[in-house]
Structures are given as C-alpha cells and as structure tokens.
Design a protein that fits this description.
Elements lengths: L2 H12 L12 H20 L1 H5 L8 H26 L5 H9 L16 H19 L8 H29 L3 H20 L11 H6 L7 H19 L9 E3 L4 E3 L5 H8 L6 H14 L1 H18 L1
Antiparallel strand pairs: 1-2
Helix pairs in contact: 2-4, 4-7, 6-7, 6-8, 6-10
The protein binds 3-hydroxybutanoyl-coenzyme A.
The site of 3-hydroxybutanoyl-coenzyme A has 27 residues, from helix 2, helix 6 and helix 9.
Pfam families: PaaA_PaaC
Protein name: 1,2-phenylacetyl-CoA epoxidase subunit A
GO molecular function: phenylacetyl-CoA 1,2-epoxidase activity
Length: 310
C-alpha cells in the first residue's frame, strides 16, 4: 500500500470528511462496508414480508394505503442501499444470490411472525423506532454514498414510526380485546427489537474497527440504551407495559436500567434457526425466480432502445 494513499485516507477519516467511490481505501474498509450495506439492503427487502402479510387484510382502506406506502418505501430503501453497495464494486444480482443462498444475512428482527394487525403497529413503533436510532448516526458515516442514502431513508422512517404509534393509540382507545392485542404484540416484539442493535459491545467483533473508521458512530450498547430511553416514555403514554421486570429509572445515570436480552436467541436466529427464517428466504427465492422474466424483458427493451438510439 502506497504510504501517501494510506495517509490521505486516514486524514479524511480523522477530519470527519467523506471517502468517495473513486478514492483509495483499504480493502478491509471496502469489505466491511459491502458486508454492512448489503445486509442493510437485504433487511429492507426481507422486511417487506412480515407487514406485506397484512396488506390484503388491513382493517380499512386508510390502513391499507398507509401500509402499502410503507412497504413501497422499504423497497426503495433497499434500492438506495444496493446502489450504494454497487459503488464499492459489487453487483446487486451477486448480493441477491448470496442472500438467497444464505451466504449473506439480514436483520434478525424479520424472522418473527406477524400474528395480527397490532403487530403492524408495533413493528412501526418499535422496529422502525429502533431503525431510526441506528440509522440517524449512519447519516454521518465516513463513506459518502452510504451516508447520503441514509438521509433520505431516515426521513421516510419517521413516517413509518409515527403511523405505527398512531395505529396502536387507536387500538388502545378501542375495546378491551384490542388493548390486549397491543399488549401481546409488545410482549412479543420488545426483546427482539433490542436485539436489532447487535450483540453486547464485548461480543461485537466489528464495532471497534467500524468506530475507528467512523462507519459506526456509536456502539451497539449505546444505541440500544438510546432506544430504551426514547421508548419507555412512549410506552407509558400509550398505556402498555414493557415486558422487562428490571426496567427502572437510574437517576445518577439519567437513563433507564434494563434487563439482559437472551443473546443465545439472537445467535440462534442469526444462524438461521428463528421462527420464520426458512419461509422468508423461500419467499425471496420464489420472487427472484418468478421475476426473472421481468428482468429479462427490461434488459431486452434496454438493448433495443440502445440499438434504436445508438
Ligand atoms: N441481525 C442479524 N445479524 C446481526 C444482528 C442482527 N440483529 N446483529 C449483529 N449481527 C451480526 C453482524 O452482521 C455480525 O456478523 P458478520 O460479521 O457476519 O456480518 C455479527 O452479528 C457480530 O455483530 P457486530 O456488532 O460485530 O456487527 P456490526 O458491527 O455489523 O453491527 C449492526 C451490527 C448494528 C446491525 C450493523 O451492521 C448496522 O448498523 N447495520 C446497518 C443497519 C441495519 O442493518 N439495520 C437492520 C434493520 S434494517 C431496518 O432497520 C429496516 C427498517 O425499515 C425497519
């Protein structure tokens, strides 16, 4: 490695400036960005399935229109992120193959089932809320295309969280049965939402290097704590109980103390042994194979247009 190039790379990172696609970068910096951005993109696309499950069964036209808009946004987020990954020299078809063959992952959270429409509200409130905590700092990531993709994603994510919370507030002002549906969904999604932030810092092999390269701006535990501190007052306002008996306000820390997630569950789900892993990949594989004719037709049309216009 040419010393001047390494020096320039390190100076740009230290000055909180951006590394752009044509800049020299260490192979390991490129590799960890491809790893994280691809996983992020896969998560957006797989994440359309749990909620998509309720599109045809939304309780009103308004709820259906909102959910349709959200699912469409997630597809767009996947597109921005695959495009950002491609600036690093990989191709989205290669990344899709790796996802389908299990060589690349997506967020554990999307391997849990959506049992009723209260789950749609809890996903918006907790899962998109956690996503906002994780994605806002990524707007200051050192890699230009990733940081810029995050700016647009974060704007749309706040709509996702607000519509979920409003849906739950409506149910909480409904019948006793509807309130029980919300509480049951919160009980099922709370701990998996905390696991979205990754393993504890002591068990996170990538965090130190990602922080040094200013890809990650906060550690997994810092963002998890920020999410808990943000969410507890919202749960109180909603009138639900978070399923953590150790949750208590810590005056001197100015934060909420909370219990330990079940890390063995996170490891199991990451390894493919969650409630819906097989189903999620099968649906993704079927969509890819059934959609091959669309890709071929678009490519044929593009070739014809090129011949016609030279
Ligand atoms: N699900 C799946 N894999 C996970 C995980 C999770 N919740 N948490 C950690 N992992 C994996 C990591 O990918 C890593 O494995 P790898 O080295 O093979 O990639 C391993 O477990 C160790 O974890 P680390 O903390 O060392 O890994 P990272 O430094 O990459 O941190 C992360 C994990 C915080 C998820 C980070 O990758 C990240 O911030 N990614 C970008 C954001 C993202 O992907 N969010 C997921 C939700 S998608 C979403 O929010 C969509 C919205 O619309 C709901």
């Amino acid at each position: 490695q040419v010393p001047e190039l390494v020096e320039r790379f390190e100076a740009v990172i230290a000055a909180e400036q951006r590394i752009e696609p044509r800049d020299w970068m260490p192979d390991a910096y490129r590799a960890t960005l491809v790893r994280q951005i691809a996983q992020h993109a896969h998560s957006e696309i797989i994440g359309m399935q749990p909620e998509g499950n309720w599109l045809t069964r939304a309780p009103s036209l308004r709820r259906k229109a909102i959910l349709l808009a959200k699912a469409q946004d997630e597809a767009g987020h996947g597109l921005y992120l695959y495009a950002a990954a491609e600036t690093l020299g990989v191709d989205r078809s290669e990344l899709t193959e790796k996802l389908i063959s299990g060589r690349q992952k997506y967020s554990s959270i999307f391997n849990y089932p959506t049992l009723n429409f209260a789950d749609v509200g809890v996903i918006g409130w907790l899962v998109d809320g956690a996503a906002i905590c994780n994605q806002v700092p990524l707007c200051r990531c050192s890699y230009g295309p990733y940081a810029r993709a995050m700016v647009r994603v974060c704007k749309e994510e706040s709509f996702h969280q607000r519509q979920g919370y409003e849906l739950l507030m409506t149910l909480m002002h409904g019948t006793e049965a509807q309130r029980a549906m919300v509480q049951d969904a919160v009980d099922r999604w709370w701990w998996p939402s905390l696991m979205m932030f990754g393993p504890p810092d002591g068990d996170s092999p990538n965090t130190a290097q990602s922080m040094a390269w200013r890809i990650k701006r906060h550690t997994n535990d810092e963002l998890r704590q920020r999410f808990v501190d943000m969410t507890v007052p919202q749960a109180e306002h909603l009138g639900v109980t978070l399923p953590d008996p150790e949750l208590r306000w810590n005056e001197e820390r100015g934060s909420w103390d909370f219990g330990e997630p079940d890390w063995s569950e996170l490891m199991r789900v990451i390894k493919g042994d969650g409630p819906c892993n097989t189903q999620r990949i099968e649906v993704r594989r079927a969509a890819h194979e059934d959609g091959a004719w669309v890709r071929e037709a678009a490519a044929a049309y593009a070739r014809k247009e090129k011949e016609r216009h030279g």
